[in-house]
Amino acid sequence: MASQRELTLGGILSHLRRDDAGWHIVYQGLTLRSVFQPVVSITHKRIVGYEALLRATDQSGRALRPDTVFARAPGKGAALAFERLARCVHFANFAEQNTRTVAPTLTSLAAPQGGDQCAWGGPARTDGGWLFVNALPRLFRTGWSYTSFIDELCDHFGLPPWRVVIEMIEEPAADEGLFMRTVEALRERQLLIAIDDFGTGFSNFDRIWHVRPDIVKLDRSLVARMATPGADPQFATQLVTMLHRAGTLVLGEGVENEAEMLTLMEADTDFIQGYWLGEPGASLDAAGRAAAPAIDAMWERFRAHAGTVPRVPADFAEFEATVLAGARVYADTRDLALAARETFARSPARRVFVLDADGEQHQPSITHETAPKPARLWPLFPDTYSNWSRRAYFRRALAAPGRVAVMGPHYSLTEGKDCYTAAVAIEVGGVTQVFCVDFAPNGSSVRLFDES
């Protein structure tokens, strides 16, 4: 059982030692050290923070996983001691290498007995950045005195709270009210909140709505699945879009290969971290040097990849003209079948339909003979009397009569797969109607426009 003295910052600092590998703590036969993995902003093309990772070894030098270290703690007091020891090691190593303000000497709170003196050496760096640190779930959920200790760490090491990101693993809380009060206490101190491992276990948007995190970290397994050959690229895009609209930044973690990196870039993910950018290390400088060329390569490969994926079909201008031609035929004849034949003859269209100014569909769609008609969607037919006013293409068409508005990709309730829809508002007998065409130009993987 940890003593009260061991749980105070002064008590913890008495265990802190410095050697060539950095600050470390030896406690109950274990040596605790820090390594750091850079977090890169894709847009800014630079490192904007580092995640602190615990490295523990026993007396024989055998490496232990962090979860093994905490699992060996006999109770809450022992787990809290290890948590605070690890936190102090991370702050000490990070603040020495990456801070905007010169930190006070460690000897101001504790003078170690023997070994290296706890004192800072060298000038403070001026490049800043976030420090990401993990919160131990079982302590975070039980109302432990987290906020006051974080305050002490920030004050002692000269690290502003707004540069510290507390990572919370997605797990259910035994006392949700207590959990949220702890979160709010952290937020009041200007600490940033991150939801870790999103996409596994108990991950859900309900926690996102309640916690309102500053950052959501997509779990490594989710990133890998999204980058699997044959996976729908729009899944990643829509997931990131939903998280952005929930008011949070998005970080893809565990990036290990080019496919994962490109998937996250195309999905408009804000940050990435992982072995593709370099292995974690005790030196921030070394980790930064490894990441720098990877960042340049990341953008070079993205530009090369973007050149192989059509963003708009080569014949889009011709297709737009065809939609307008079909709309004119309908305006002149009020014959949807005739207008559909004109449209099908000159474009990769799959479906033609007409809406009134309220988005109501009063006559059946006309579908190209080659378009799929999945039996599983049969209850959705016929589509007469449907209302499509919620769709962006309808709203955009009404906002700019005579101009073709395009939306996509979006999920088709007719085919059960992605499609694009073009629409144009026209006058038919003095009444506004919207002429619409569904199509899948150059295959379903083309990214043309989104709904934003």
TrEMBL record:
Protein name, UniProt field: EAL domain-containing protein
Organism in which the protein naturally occurs: Trinickia symbiotica
Taxonomy, superkingdom: Bacteria
Domain EAL: from-to ranges: 15-294
Gene Ontology molecular function, alphabetical: cyclic-guanylate-specific phosphodiesterase activity
Classification via InterPro entries: Cyclic-di-GMP_PDE-like, EAL_dom, EAL_sf, Sensor-like_sf
Record CDD domains: EAL
